[in-house]
């Protein structure tokens, strides 16, 4: 391939972009549409649900040290790279690799990972809506221990110290421990949770119904493309921040908040030797910033070519990181308060599973004036964060599919409806009594961990070494007029790929089977094997497509020529002065 000026060439048949297609795929209208869409996508449940849970699981401050390391070396560089290349090429995650076709399997891997994540996000939304509906009661159902689902070892936060201590002493003699009323509501009422993934149980019909309506909302938010999506993401991007700060202020005023904050900020340096901490921190960086899912590439592809995507991307990175940190303060101040009530060490107060946010938020809601209002708003926030991230991920997935199969664009409403209904069916196992275990399996194996790291590594290699890190820098200058420092080239070529590769190796060498939350009981062997299958769906797409390309594409060429054509990028003008809208990709005759 070679970079050329389309005005000098009369042949437009093989252009990677054309005016008609750009018009069909749509562009952001307002100046802040793109920034708001990135906030809606990247700032979500990963910040207020997954980040605090992983931080709690890995020793608080220890996790923050590892997280900061990956933020600098991986999150920011890759985030900027994905957004910029999407805007420059005006293509989704799969079709953009026509400039380096040997790496098209990376785009397929992006789509598969997004598929895995989309499969369970609406389940989390259904949990939040269930709590939101439950908050209309004058007394919260998670506030007392006199409900049908409560057991004898239930301890309510409303119990006085004498009663609470007597119950703890009694259970200690029976070799049992107390459980808070909040925990029992979560496990025994919301989830009907079984002890293992083998115990499938029945379907939690209330969650299934909520999940169905969540998918209806997502469908109507997307059925007119980004025109309808932009209206949805503006509200969804801004409203949750008000609620996060309210939660933070109230949490910091609770008794015991300082204990939680101390746990959050104080690193246990010995834990830094635990590879699980680094694996979780690294995957959380990629997960919370949304790299490797293809959505950032798709969102960037809807920009006008002269949009200052670099500014928006850098601003977004710091907004995202700050949101995670603030959410951590809010959650850990509440956990400190819960440790005082339960008279336990904070590391033992709740099981560090995917439901951590659904244990902390209800607790603080019981201690607010106008508690029904605040509980409703808190869970509305979780609902909105889940829906807006889901809408943006679906837009990224569908953009990639539309670019690869243009016929879908002409029948968008039907294709989108089929897609949404398919994801609804896929989510049904996750609203059974063992559903939370299935969700954890998809989360750990399919949408993060090994699979995400592997795909991101090859994505960075393909872009920084295949297309060329220096050429990305020139492309950014051609679009924005900003001349980036050579440090960015070093980050793209060396720091980011090396970081993701070493992290992937650590995960493989120090592999630990998946355990049930808060226990030392591992998932059954078949479940971990199935988890590896989920990971392999995205990972194997890269080598398999490369083999397909080398064997079946351009068969009239020698193997060496096919290999060169598969990795040789088009060349940008050295001074980067070509107008971005005049840059197109044409097949070379060499």
Automatic annotation (TrEMBL):
Residues 1-24 are annotated as: Disordered. GO terms for cellular component: neuron projection; plasma membrane. Disulfide bonds join 145-154. It is found in: Membrane. Na(+) 1 binds at residues 42-43, 47, 288, 385, 388-389. The keyword Transferase does not apply. The chain crosses the membrane at residues 34-52, 64-85, 106-133, 203-223, 232-265, 285-301, 313-335, 373-393, 414-436, 448-469, 490-511, 531-552. PROSITE patterns: NA_NEUROTRAN_SYMP_1 (PS00610), NA_NEUROTRAN_SYMP_3 (PS50267). InterPro entries: Na/ntran_symport (IPR000175), SNS_sf (IPR037272). Na(+) 2 binds at residue 320. Belongs to the sodium:neurotransmitter symporter (SNF) (TC 2.A.22) family. This is Transporter. The lineage of its organism: Eukaryota, Metazoa, Ecdysozoa, Nematoda, Chromadorea.
């Amino acid at each position: 391939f070679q970079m050329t000026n389309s005005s000098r060439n009369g042949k437009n048949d093989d252009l990677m972009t054309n005016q008609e297609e750009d018009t069909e795929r749509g562009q952001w209208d307002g100046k802040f549409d793109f920034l708001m869409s990135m906030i809606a996508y990247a700032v979500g449940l990963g910040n207020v649900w997954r980040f605090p849970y992983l931080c709690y699981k890995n020793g608080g401050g220890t996790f923050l040290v590892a997280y900061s390391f990956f933020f600098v070396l991986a999150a920011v560089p890759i985030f900027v790279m994905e957004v910029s290349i999407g805007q420059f090429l005006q293509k989704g995650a799969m079709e953009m690799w026509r400039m380096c076709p040997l790496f098209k399997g990376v785009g397929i891997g992006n789509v598969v990972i997004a598929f895995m994540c989309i499969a369970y996000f609406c389940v989390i939304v259904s949990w939040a809506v269930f709590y939101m509906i439950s908050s209309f009661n004058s007394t919260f159902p998670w506030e007392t221990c006199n409900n049908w689902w409560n057991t004898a070892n239930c301890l309510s936060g409303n119990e006085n110290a004498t009663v609470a201590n007597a119950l703890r002493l009694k259970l200690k003699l029976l070799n049992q421990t107390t459980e808070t009323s909040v925990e029992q509501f979560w496990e025994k009422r919301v989830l009907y949770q079984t002890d293992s993934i083998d115990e499938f149980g029945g379907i939690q019909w209330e969650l299934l119904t909520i999940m169905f309506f969540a998918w209806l909302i997502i469908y109507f938010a997307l059925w007119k493309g980004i025109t309808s999506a932009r209206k949805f993401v503006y509200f969804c991007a801004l409203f949750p921040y008000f609620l996060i700060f309210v939660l933070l202020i109230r949490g910091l005023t609770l008794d015991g908040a300082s204990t939680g904050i101390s746990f959050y900020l104080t690193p246990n340096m010995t834990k830094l030797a635990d590879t699980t901490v680094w694996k979780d921190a690294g995957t959380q960086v990629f997960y919370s910033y949304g790299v490797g899912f293809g959505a950032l590439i798709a969102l960037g592809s809807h920009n006008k070519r002269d949009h200052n995507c670099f500014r928006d991307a850098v601003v977004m990175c710091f907004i995202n990181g700050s949101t995670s940190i603030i959410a951590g303060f809010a959650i850990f101040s509440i956990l400190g308060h819960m440790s005082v009530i339960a008279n336990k060490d904070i590391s033992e107060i709740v099981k560090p599973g995917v439901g951590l946010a659904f244990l902390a938020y209800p607790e603080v809601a019981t201690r607010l004036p106008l508690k029904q209002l605040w509980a409703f708003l808190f869970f509305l926030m979780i609902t909105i964060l889940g829906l807006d991230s889901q809408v943006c991920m679906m837009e990224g997935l569908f953009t990639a599919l539309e670019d690869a199969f243009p016929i879908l664009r002409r029948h968008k409403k039907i294709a989108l409806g089929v897609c949404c209904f398919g994801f609804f069916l896929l989510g049904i196992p996750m609203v059974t009594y063992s559903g939370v275990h299935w969700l954890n399996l998809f989360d750990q194996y399919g949408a993060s961990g090994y699979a995400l790291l592997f795909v991101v590594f090859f994505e960075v290699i393909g872009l920084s070494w295949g297309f060329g890190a220096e050429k990305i820098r020139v492309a950014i200058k051609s679009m924005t007029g900003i001349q980036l420092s050579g440090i960015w080239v070093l980050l793209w070529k060396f720091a980011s790929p090396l970081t993701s590769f070493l992290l992937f190796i650590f995960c493989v060498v120090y592999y630990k089977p998946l355990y049930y939350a808060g226990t030392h009981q591992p998932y059954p062997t078949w479940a971990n094997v199935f988890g590896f299958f989920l990971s392999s769906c995205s990972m194997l797409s890269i080598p398999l497509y490369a083999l397909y390309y080398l064997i079946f594409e351009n068969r009239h060429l020698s193997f060496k020529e096919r290999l060169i054509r598969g990795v040789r990028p088009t060349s940008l003008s050295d001074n980067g002065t070509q107008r971005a809208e005049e840059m197109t990709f044409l097949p070379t005759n060499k």
